[in-house]
Amino acid sequence: MNITAKTLPLGVIGHPVAHSVSPEIHNFILDCLEMNYFYCAYHVLPENLPDAIRGVRALGIRGLNVTIPHKEEVLRLCDEVDNYAMKTGAVNTVVNRAGRLMGYNTDAPGFIASLARSGVSVGGKNVVILGAGGAARGVASAVLENGAAKVGIVNRTRSRAEHLANSLHDCRISAADGAEGAQILINATSVGMKSDATPFTDFDSLAPDCVVCDIVFCPRETAFLGLAAKKGFKTVGGIGMLIYQAVIAFELFTQTKVSDDIIEKLFRRLEMNRSIVLTGFMGCGKSAVGRELAQMTGCELIDCDDYIVKTTGMTIPEIFDKEGESGFRDIESRCIRELSRLRGVIISLGGGAVLRRENIDLLRESCYVFRLKADVEKILRNTAGDTNRPLLKGKSRPEIEAMLDYREPYYSNCDYTIDVSNMYPNQSAKKIIDTVMNSDKF
Ligand code: ATR
Asked: Does the pLDDT at position 390 exceed 80?
């Protein structure tokens, strides 16, 4: 990207905002279209929101996405808002049209567009929504607007469900106690985000052809969707809503159509039907590259060693002391088996996990397995002073070189090798995403 005096600013405001995938999505579209804008994240504290919006006018920022906790307050600071923003009481997109700030809600149409891509329409359907917060309000407005016959709101706190249903002033929507006969069931709670909890288990009560949808996109297949799929229901994950709300916002910002081809590329980049697994010798930078990948994709990063510590309640040196290396490897293989069942996460493996070929063979069945290759200088630099690596304790350079040589054939069993010796973590992560996008394993 070549930033000049003519480059136009776009961005997202939130608190927190560092986890946002929006910069990734918008800058990707900008790159595809070779447009002279840039998009970045601004961390705005609630007390600074009015100043930030004044700044949008003063600096001529062309467009902003708005995320938690500002969506409601920004509505009051816009000059005009669209129908969805009015109905949901929330603005997620602000467009600066020559100093007039126009507020939109693209979450609601983004949800409908995501269903449409999966061949699902809400018209005439019996829809049940789980949750009664801001997200549920957006989804409820969208399905009513698009012709749902009946909408039930099921929520842990029933009074909130009643409040939401009443506030939409539509006789088709009411609070409900279950999802009996639902033809479309939507999770609009936060349950399942970075956890294996599910907000619903009574799948036998649904209509046989029910479509089960989640707005949670991390992990890509939530426990809720996993259970629904096992019962034979068609499922739609949350990543489509994330992509389409961004695409619709982008079109409003730039008045430029985003082609289907670019949208498909975004899905390819973010859908993560398979998890990404990082292997490589200790100190090759798996954790740093993993963090970058998690940021770029909005996926959860799971460090296999941390997972082992969490599930055994012991530190890695303690396991080595108590069980020896082979005992540790048994525990590691069990944890890898568990992790291999997850979809759409980034898994960083311990350096020696490749020593058991069956670990990598298993992961390759369901994931993209990357080996990060670093030269011995980088490894020495990155592991200097680290006391949590029992296998490196007291090792000289030739000994480490010998270990590298010994492991080389094991590492070459991975799907892809990336030489990261001279790359920053963000460069390595970008290369991994590009490799995944072009992989015939996709
Ligand atoms: P948002 O604006 O993102 O939708 P919210 O207003 O906090 O966030 O709403 C979160 C929704 O998830 C609510 O419907 C909440 O239920 P309550 O109204 O009973 O609080 C639901 N939710 C969150 N955690 C939950 C849990 N552990 N079990 C069931 N529902 C939960």
From this structure: no
